From TrEMBL:
Family statement: Belongs to the UDP-galactopyranose/dTDP-fucopyranose mutase family.
Pfam families given in the database record: GLF (PF03275), NAD_binding_8 (PF13450)
Keyword Flavoprotein: yes
Species whose genome carries this gene: Deinococcus arboris
InterPro entries: UDP-GALP_mutase (IPR004379), UDP-GalPyranose_mutase_C (IPR015899)
Protein name according to UniProt: UDP-galactopyranose mutase
Enzyme class, broadest EC rank: isomerase
């Protein structure tokens, strides 16, 4: 019998079976032989990236579309251990002035919107002529208006942002709209990353492969607090909301949530691309059609409408200076808990893409197994 098997309990309790938790569980179990218990309050693994087949037999993302893209060869190579890929480049249209126009704004967007015939070189001059330079870029409004002027800002960004965040772009950090580039060519891909692909058989199958290690035990429909005093473990990895971990002692960190309304239609295709944004009309921000994203062939099609709301599961940290200051108070508390590692979107109050969460989890694994706590937590491979 190995030393690992002889010891009672677990080496790690991981709270949350999304990307951060699953990557750390896999790495710790596979690379160090650690015994890992991963728990999630939801009835499934995969976090918000979880996918499943709906009643029509169409693969859907219950928590809205998750499009994988990364510039990191390391992240892509790591995930490739657990899935094959289907190449996919996401395209988005915005419903503006009775047309569906490419977003991010590009040469075709401007020409079709204004009935022009500009070249790429002329578009740069056009943007320069309508831009309103700002002495200092502080807000999301500043980012867009200083690049493409107020009319494009009003048509494509202001209404969408107000719906998404419940705040005007002038009240939000510049990082919100800085995520969406402006192009002077005809590139209509939403992302420009080196690696753009979807897990061939879905995210859930990928997560199942990641967690299929004999040293990993999974408990679903479980609040980790219910396990205290029932099971022994040596170190906690927490991927949930950091303010909830500390019982909201400084107040709640603000998040935006979403309501997802799923529909199935008796037609092979509902819309021309994976996602259509509605910046100025209706209560929803966008409609996504899953078959574009997954490549599934099916006589019917399923779509999801996204309605932003203030209450509900936390999805998006609200990027405002006062919220960053509140997070810093919670972050200071995390430093008083050497027995807990905080990782992931919710635990670090940052809006990370999926690949960024994977990269953060891999970096956290290296730190856990190479830092001062490594000797205390090291176990013999089983």
């Amino acid at each position: 019998m190995t030393e690992t098997a002889a010891q009672p309990g677990f080496d790690y309790l991981i709270v949350g079976a999304g990307f951060a938790g699953a990557v750390l569980a896999e790495r710790l179990a596979t690379a160090t032989g650690a015994r890992v218990l991963i728990v999630d309050r939801r009835p499934h693994i995969g976090g918000n990236a979880y996918d499943r087949y709906d009643d029509a037999g169409i693969l859907i993302h219950p928590y809205g579309p998750h499009i994988f893209h990364t510039n990191s060869a390391d992240v892509f190579a790591y995930l490739s251990r657990f899935t094959e890929w289907r190449p996919y480049q996401h395209r988005v249209l915005a419903s503006v002035d009775g047309q569906q126009l490419p977003i991010p704004i590009n040469l075709d967007t401007v020409n079709r919107l204004y009935g022009l015939n500009l070249t790429a070189f002329e578009l740069e001059a056009f943007f320069a002529s309508v831009a309103e330079p700002a002495a200092q870029i502080r807000t999301s409004e500043d980012v867009v208006v200083s690049k493409v002027g107020r009319d494009l800002y009003n048509k494509f960004f202001r209404g969408y942002t107000r719906k998404q965040w419940g705040l005007d772009p002038s009240e939000l950090d510049a990082s919100v709209t800085a995520r969406v580039p402006t192009r002077t060519n005809r590139d209509d891909r939403y992302f420009a990353d080196t690696y753009q692909a979807m897990p061939l058989h879905g995210y859930t199958r990928m997560f199942e492969a990641m967690l299929a290690h004999p040293n990993i035990k999974v408990m679903l429909n479980t609040d980790y607090r219910e396990l205290q005093g029932l099971l022994p473990w040596r170190h906690t990895i927490y991927t949930g909301p950091v303010d909830a971990f500390f019982d909201h002692c400084y107040g709640r960190l603000p998040y935006r949530s979403l309501e997802f309304v799923h529909e199935t239609h008796a037609t092979p295709q509902f819309q021309p691309v994976g996602t259509v944004n509605y910046p100025n009309d209706y209560g929803y921000t966008r409609i996504s059609e899953f078959k574009h994203i997954t490549g599934q062939a099916h006589p019917q099609t399923s779509v999801v409408y996204e309605y932003p709301q203030a209450e509900g599961d936390p999805y998006y940290p609200v990027p405002r200076p006062e919220n960053a200051e509140l997070y810093k108070r919670y972050e200071a508390l995390t430093h008083t808990r050497p027995d807990v590692t905080f990782v992931g979107r919710l635990a670090t109050y940052r809006y990370y893409n999926m690949d960024q969460v994977v990269a953060q989890a891999l970096a956290t694994f290296r730190r856990l197994t190479a830092g001062p706590e490594a000797s205390e937590l090291a176990v013999q491979p089983g």
